[in-house]
Design goal:
four-stranded antiparallel sheet; 374 residues; globular; 41% strand; 2 helices; mainly beta
Length: 374
């Protein structure tokens, strides 16, 4: 495991730690044990409870494990062993989907919020990655990679019937970010390769109809990230403009009209994510760093107005996500010398660390606002 961690942590700091799942899960030369049993003695406050507010990957035990944190700040590790545990996705009722290493490939599991009832979502032989829950928690989207043909597809699992359907693909590549859902569960957005081998932003209905590519006409070099707004009407994506770095683009799904929110800035913009009301976008960017290498965390309105730098720190801040109550933005930072998770209050802009230790926390998933029962 040490060789994987060392190689991974040498990567570009803006993307290396938020990409643990893709980096670790796809290394085929390493050998790992089967998924470990759930850890005993989980606090009652976390036991399958919707009070669980966040799931994340931590290396504090020496190996990647899935941890959860509740609204009172209590933390608990849910996995153990030498398998690679990564890409946690938290459902509204506290269940966790995640990726584990099994028989030399990554596969998707689900478990209860106390670590019990670990279960593979399929019996296939494909590699499986990047799970994401439907808003009602009844379906799970994930990517599969056929290890024989090298082709990828986006599949949906019905958690009640256990039926799996392919809604998009095959493609030479999908992801690495999980597919995003509209709040009504009818539409998904994902990155996939086009016929020219370039990543583009796609939307598709949950039944596989209406597959539409949105990004190539505006940015022929392709897209590096894409997320669907909760109202299902807009997609924010990152366009590769080479000499102008990467820009944030918002595209209307129905009309296909695209707007560059950052046209006047020569900087990199990364990991845009929508607020629950589809009005604001959180993202990271190098726009305030004279050297153009260090990212801060920002928010702006979907039309490009009301830009705010939330972090303003000399260390790297990245991978922002909205808190369940919509009052904070939670992000990863290297300000301690390792990757730890922080949250910033959107009213007072006070920033606090969610945990303090000498290892790494990353790849966090926040419980959906719509089901949080505030």
């Amino acid at each position: 495991m040490e060789s994987i961690q060392t190689d991974f942590l040498k990567r570009d700091p803006r993307v290396r730690l938020s990409r643990l799942a893709a980096a670790a899960a796809l290394v085929v030369s390493a050998s790992f044990s089967q998924a470990g049993a759930p850890v005993a003695g989980v606090a009652a406050a976390l036991s399958g409870s919707p009070s669980t507010s966040m799931a994340y990957v931590s290396l504090r035990s020496g190996d990647p494990q899935i941890w959860v944190r509740n609204g009172q700040g209590q933390e608990q590790v849910l996995t153990q062993g030498k398998a690679v545990y990564a890409q946690p996705a938290l459902a509204g009722d506290g269940r966790v989907a995640y990726v584990a290493r099994e028989a030399g490939r990554p596969v998707v599991y689900t478990m209860n919020g106390d670590g019990s009832a670990q279960q593979r979502v399929s019996t296939g032989t494909d590699a499986e990655m990047a799970p994401s829950w439907s808003p009602d928690g009844r379906s799970l989207a994930f990517y599969v990679l056929d290890l024989k043909t090298g082709e990828s597809a986006l599949r949906l699992l019905d958690l009640q019937t256990r039926r799996i359907t392919t809604v998009a693909g095959p493609s030479k590549s999908m992801g690495p970010a999980p597919a995003s859902w509209s709040a009504d569960g009818k539409r998904l957005c994902f990155l996939g390769q086009d016929a020219k081998g370039r990543n583009q932003a796609f939307v598709v209905q949950h039944d596989g109809s209406g597959l539409t590519e949105l990004s190539s006409k505006f940015a022929p070099r392709g897209a590096a990230w894409a997320e669907l707004s909760p109202d299902g009407k807009k997609v924010v994506w990152v366009a590769d403009f080479r000499e102008k770095r990467s820009h944030l683009i918002v595209t209307d799904v129905d009309s296909g009209q695209s707007t560059d929110l950052t046209s006047s800035v020569v900087a990199s913009h990364e990991s845009p994510r929508w607020s629950a009301d589809s009005q604001y976008i959180a993202f990271s960017s190098t726009r305030d760093d004279p050297a153009g290498t260090r990212t801060d965390v920002y928010t702006m309105k979907f039309d490009g107005s009301e830009l705010r730098n939330l972090s303003r720190h000399p260390a790297e801040d990245f991978d922002p996500k909205w808190s369940s109550d919509g009052r904070h933005v939670i992000f990863a930072s290297l300000r301690s010398g390792t990757s730890l998770l922080y949250q910033v209050d959107l009213q007072g802009e006070k920033t606090e660390a969610l945990a303090q230790h000498a290892s790494h926390d990353m790849d966090h998933s926040v419980r959906p606002l719509a089901l949080s029962g505030r």
